[in-house]
Amino acid sequence: MIIKDTETIGKEIPNVIRNEIITALAHYPELKSTHIRFKFTRSLNGSIMAARPQISTLFGKRKNRKYDILMSPVFKLKNSIEPLHQVDPNVLIGWIGHELGHIMDYEQRSTFGIARFGLLYWLSKTYIRKAERVADTFAVHRGMASYILATKDFILSHSGLSQKYKDKITRLYLSPDDIVQVVEEMQQSNNREGILVEEAEISTNLDHQEQESR
Q: Are 163 and 204 in contact (CB under 8 A)?
């Protein structure tokens, strides 16, 4: 069942994980009016969730953009399948928080920048690593470190997950030590405006570094 959320403007949320989504959204006040559809799909290959812009909305004003967070309805293990909504709530919140970090990144990009992002994400493993770490950093800056750590611990310590998948997570995403370092740096600066500037620089540098490497 899909319901229109009444607490957050422009969101479409599956009722079965509504609480987890609302908790994650609460850490992103900048996305309060952003149109986001949370949608279960079986079309994801090798991923649990993915954040994508709705292509048809990229050619108008930025404020009218719409995004999808696609979610696999099941969590596939070596010898079994577990419904996603039965995963620990803190783990789900961390996963959702990471995908919202991608949307924060998209929001800072032009239409051309988003198209270029999609192409480079498909072509470059180095770009994938940088982009995933940017999304993690956005989430940690929003006070979601404990949730992101819960998600990583769940993945890396789960006996039912393949080592290949665990290696992928270790290779592409911030490590627990990286997350602790980001939190410590935030506590030292304690400056939200400075953090927002840093986030804009992270996204900009991601594009510049890739341009220089080509």
A: no
Sign of CA dihedral 195, 201, 206, 207: positive
Q: Strand pairing of 2-4 and 11-14? A: antiparallel
Are 149 and 94 in contact, with CB atoms under 8 Å apart? yes
Torsion of CA 21, 23, 24, 25, to 10 degrees: 80
Say whether 38 sits in a helix, a strand or coil: strand
Region 33-59 average pLDDT: 92
Strands 49-53 and 11-14: unpaired
129-159 confidence digits (pLDDT tens): 989 999 999 999 999 999 999 999 999 998 8
**Dist. CA 198–CA 20, nearest whole Å:** 28
CA 139 to chain centroid, in Å, comes to: 8
The vertex-47 CA angle with 45 and 52, nearest 5°, equals 90
Q: Alpha-carbon dihedral of residues 208, 189, 30, 88, nearest 10 degrees?
A: 100
For 182, residues 6+ apart whose C-beta sits below 8 A from its C-beta are 137, 140, 141, 145, 174
Q: What is the pLDDT of residue 160?
A: 87
- C-alpha closest to that of 157 among 44, 149, 132, 90: 149
| Strands 49-53 and 35-40, sheet pairing | unpaired
For residue 174, give the DSSP letter.
-
Residue 51 has, within 13 A of its CA and on its CB side, a CA count of: 22
